[in-house]
Amino acid sequence: MLDVRRMQMLRAVVADGSVTGAAATLGYTPSAVSQQIAALEKEAGAALLERVGRGVRPTAAGLLLTGYADTVARQVAEAEAALADLLAGRTGRLSVRYFATAGAALVAPAVARLRAEHPGVRLELRLSRDSEEPLADVKEGRADLALLVRAEDRPETGVRLVRLLDDPYLAVLPRGHRLAGRRSVRLTELAEEEFVGSEWPGPCLDAQFDACEAAGFRPRFVVDSEDYVTAQGFVAAGLGVSLVPRLGLGSRHPGVVVREVRDPVPVRAIHVAVRETAPPQPAREAFLDALRAAAGATVK
Q1: How high is the pLDDT of residue 259?
Q2: Which residues of 141-218 form beta strands (DSSP E)?
Q3: Given 18, 97, 104, 203, which residue has the most CB atoms within 10 angstroms?
Q4: Vertex 106: Cα angle to 100 and 108 (nearest 5)
Q5: Which residue from 200, 190, 177, 196 is spatially nearest to 257, judged by alpha carbons?
Q6: What confidence score (pLDDT) does residue 80 get?
Q7: How many helices (H) and strands (E) does the chain have?
Q8: Predicted TM-score (pTM) of this structure
Q9: Strand 159-174 to strand 242-245: parallel, antiparallel, or no bridges (unpaired)?
Q10: Cα separation of 196 and 241, whole Å?
Q11: Which has the higher per-residue pLDDT, 130 or 111?
């Protein structure tokens, strides 16, 4: 097998035309360079240099190996430049999992910022509908980041949870509702109401249950829509009231009014999950910063 370091020495000798000049450039003694060239000739099974006057010139075999040494030198330089870009966060690849309502409000502006500041970073974005799947993807290394709703009292082994924001639930009422004229409603005032479900079973629905339990009741669902837009339609039709998170409201149905809820405020906590053992990755930290900025913009 040919020694790459010795090939680079041959390249220097051929470029200078002498062993002595190449040795001075490389910082070796002429004897050391001659020994390395002799060892390379043994590896190649052919003479690589021939004497011409006071200098040397490459044989056909030496010229062949010098050309490959040039290619290796270029590839090493390219590899060093690519590594420097990766370590500086100028390039890289990130796999991100997110849920629907976090997409428009958080992920989209974060992606726009990352592309403007780090155009060389490639993103793979995948929508997750299951609350546990994105967490498993992060733990097992299939994703670099996952946005999810998580309760503070549910620590997760193997991941670091970065809290982005608290997304409060708002009361969605029919326009003619007895509380529609209020600026806000107390959660206990909805205790006797029939509810239109807006969430899939999971941490988001649990946030509603926890708040209602703290207010002394359990909501009585008459419709399970599991969709924010559909829930508004059922509310507008007079089937009940609903709780919808601020990020999930989107366009409002003309037949409903939306009011803030207090005493207590139902809240879902939105986090970003990162694998604890993941090595440092500047592109990932840049995207986290962009998500934090997007989250800050939504609460102003």
Answers
A1: 97
A2: 145-149, 159-174, 184-186, 194-197
A3: 97
A4: 85
A5: 177
A6: 79
A7: 10, 12
A8: 0.74
A9: antiparallel
A10: 6
A11: 111
Phi and psi dihedrals of 203, rounded to 5?
-65, -30
Q: What is the mean pLDDT of residues 16-28?
A: 90
**Where does residue 126 rank: exposed (0-12), middle (13-18), buried (19+ CB within 10 A)?**
middle
Burial of residue 165 (CB within 10 Å: 0-12, 13-18, 19+) is buried
Tell me the pLDDT tens digit for each residue of 178-237.
999 999 999 999 999 999 999 988 899 999 999 999 999 999 999 998 889 999 999 999
Peptide bond into 264 cis (omega under 30): yes
Task: Tell whether the torsion through CA atoms of 86, 91, 96 and 101 is positive or negative.
Answer: positive
Q: Whole-angstrom Cα distance, residue 150 to residue 140?
A: 19
Q: What ranges in 107-217 are assigned the alpha helix state H?
A: 108-117, 133-139, 203-214
Sorted by where each starts, the structural domains of the chain and their CATH numbers stand as 4-87 (1.10.10.10), 91-164+269-298 (3.40.190.10), 167-268 (3.40.190.10)
DSSP letter (8 states) at residue 79:
H
Token readout for 255 is 């037949």
Residues 109, 146: Cα–Cα separation, whole Å:
16
Contact predicate 106/135, CB 8 Å: no
Within a 10 A sphere around the Cβ of 190, how many other Cβ atoms? 22
250: left (phi over 0), alpha (psi -120 to 50) or beta: left
Rounded (5°) CA angle 215-217-222? 130
Residues in the chain: 300
